[in-house]
Amino acid sequence: MSIVESAGQVLREGAFGHATGLACRECGHEIPLGPNYACPECFGPLEIAYDFPAITREEIEAGPANIWRYKALLPVPSDIEQSPNMEPGYTRLLKAHNLGRELGIDNLWVKDDSTNPTNSFKDRVVACALSAATEFHSKVFACPSTGNLANAVAAAGARAGIKTVVFIPANLETPKKVNSAIFTDSLIAVNGNYDDVNKLASEIAGEEDGWAFVNVNVRPYYAEGSKTLGYEIAEQLGWRLPDQIVIPVASGSQLTKVHKAFQELIKLGLVEEKPYRVFGAQATGCSPVSVAYKAGVDAIRPVKPDTIAKSLAIGNPADGIYVLDICRETGGAVEDITDDEVRAGIVLLARTEGIFTETAGGTTVGVLKKLVETGQLDTSLETVVINTGHGLKTLDAVTELVGAAATIDPSYDAFRASGLV
Ligand SMILES: Cc1ncc(COP(=O)(O)O)c(C=O)c1O
Ligand SMILES: [Zn+2]
């Protein structure tokens, strides 16, 4: 690979695959690739622009069983498999017979991203952010996080041998804190909510040289990792888009990128064009996008989060307005449920499909149920629900709900006397 100058940085040619620059989502202004995330003209969010090659299904299918099978559609070099990373993705898509029967949905699938290396979909975005941070010669790999991202950044940094510093709200669940601290000695708990942590991270990114905040100054590269969720769903359905998809919303990045992935697959001729409906899921205690959707307004009013779904507790979502656009344009909706319904959603998925999801998944499954009950979701259409994280990270949310074990003496009589069977 030869060397090229771009945005004052020395970049290897081909280091970003088929990416050609950064384009503003609002005004379309393009700038060269670099560690930038806001449009210099209008401060709108920057996204990766590409000149995609012609690519076939067979070429993708011949790739590795992880997100790098889609490397031609990501801002990463063609030899990305050679650099140490967590190799996330290609998680299972399970037919949810029992949950479908319970909810009256004929054809339901669960895309289970809790089986990624650090047990959430965040390993996907971090893999792309790590590749960009490496190209920008970053000294520190960092993030503000509601928990899962911190886990993924800390683990990926450890494996790549890069220093990590992760910032979280101080009141996060203990398992998520331990899951970061095991990989890095620089876990910083901030007295405040996620939006305070995010503000601090932006300030540090502006002051310190050589820090790659995965979801701040390398956000355009990071966000592309979420597209792989959409690619996989289509490929695992036999190169077909689902009719309906339900996705949890915090910043809204994941939902917008799954939609982007579907659109790219159509443009590349890898799937047939068809209508599909996108639904967003939030917990009522932090539901600024759902509130705006229901009010029929375009502006999202920031809120102070108060919910057990802490991974979704972003009161001022960066991509909220785009979530609104996508859900409206595709004929979907944004819905929210109470914390009790979130807990019930976790138990419902566990008892029907044997999948233990965290509060974000409880929110998604609970919202799916509410969408059926309120007639917003068409139960005759093929539907995919995404489980984004593992239940062992938010054990406290359901510990009391499921109760203690029935404790008996080790005798057959005691077993019979327990009345359990
Ligand atoms: C488990 C889980 N699901 C969903 C989300 C929402 O992601 P996004 O911020 O892309 O909307 C998060 C965000 O942290 C998460 O941790
Ligand atoms: Zn702009």
UniProtKB/TrEMBL annotation:
Its cofactor is pyridoxal 5'-phosphate. The keyword Lyase applies. CDD domains: Thr-synth_1 (cd01563). GO terms for molecular function: L-serine ammonia-lyase activity; threonine deaminase activity; threonine synthase activity. Residues 88-389 form the Tryptophan synthase beta chain-like PALP domain. Keywords: Lyase, Pyridoxal phosphate. Pfam families: PALP. The modification N6-(pyridoxal phosphate)lysine is found at residue 122. Its EC number is 4.2.3.1. One of its GO terms (biological process) is isoleucine biosynthetic process. It is an enzyme of class 4 (lyase). Belongs to the threonine synthase family. This is Threonine synthase.
